[in-house]
Amino acid sequence: MEGNSICNRAAVVFLISFRQLCLVTVSLPLCALLICFVTAYIFQQDDIHETHCRVYNVIPSISAITGISPQRYLWRTCIAFHIGPRVIIASVYKIHYRYLLSKLYSEPNATANRLLNLCYWLNMLEIGALCGVTYVSNRENYPAHEKIFITFMIGSLSYMLVTLKVFKMVKPTMTESERRSYFMKKVLFGTSICSTAGLLVFFLKHRLLCHEMAFSWFSLCEYIIACANMAFHFTVVMDFPTENLVVIQGSSSVPLPLNSVDSEQKVK
User: Which residues contact 195 (CB under 8 A, 6 or more apart)?
Assistant: First the structure.
């Protein structure tokens, strides 16, 4: 009875499909990267293929195509719109995992809580490093850009690994959709690890030995890593297929269970 009176006093002022929000969030950097690649490759080949070794190169790096003008403005704008929803998604995952954890353990589990917090902060580290490599280009400050990129790679791979551990921990028995999501996460993590190994090998070949095409293979590994990273975050649409993001006016204590489709339908 009290819950009904609270809901009657509250008003939904904004409602958006969480799935649609996630689709737009992931599509922004993907579309921007594609546009930057095509336009730079057609109109600015001399700028994007320049390397310190001055050897033959056919595939430009992500930093090269997003660090020149006017592509840098499109890339930075899309990342700016991408970051906000990423922070929201990271917070939703943290609350979601904590909710599932509370159903598994009657008493607080310190180890599990630490793992959840680690997962959240690694996600935030990745988001922060993404901002860094976007707004500190290799043309403006290469040493800083390089260090931030390394931070992004470490944060991204660590977040993927911890996410797999947390996902299996909070969902010991999975539905068919959850199993698909978990399998995709594992495949994409494996792809990222293999591509990172290739990236390191070809970077050293290019940097130390100036092998022809080494930088192109480095760039190819970089694109695979970027796509695997975006696809990993895209699995959020499988984890939250029907939920809505809701802004409510009138009460700060409206009961809205995160993982309840019935509650969502009532809000609608």
Answer: 221, 222, 224, 225, 228
Report the interhelical angle of 214-234 vs 176-204 (nearest 10°).
160
SS3 content of the chain, % helix, strand, coil (to 5): 75, 5, 20
C-alpha to C-alpha distance for 186 and 112, rounded to whole angstroms: 20
Q: Which of 5-9, 26-30, 249-253 has the highest mean pLDDT?
A: 26-30
End-to-end CA distance of the chain: 20
* DSSP structural state of residue 206: I
The tens digit of pLDDT for each residue in 47-91 reads 887 777 777 889 999 999 999 999 999 999 999 999 999 999 999
What band does 261 get if pLDDT is binned at 50, 70 and 90? very low
| Three-state DSSP class for residue 175 | coil
Tell me the CB-side half-sphere exposure of residue 193, using CA atoms within 13 A: 10
Written as six digits, the tokens of 186 are 């594992």
Task: List all residues 6 or more positions away from 239 whose beta carbon is below 8 Å from its beta carbon.
Answer: 93, 96, 178, 181
pTM of the model: 0.87
| CB 223 within 8 Å of CB 58 | no
Q: What is the pLDDT of residues 184-197, one digit of tens each?
A: 999 999 999 999 99
Q: Which of 235, 247, 241 is nearest to 259 (CA)?
A: 241
Alpha-carbon distance of 49 to 215, in angstroms, equals 9
User: At 249, which helix (H) or strand (E)?
Assistant: strand 244-249
Residue 83's contacts (CB-CB under 8 Å, 6 or more residues apart) are 127, 130, 131
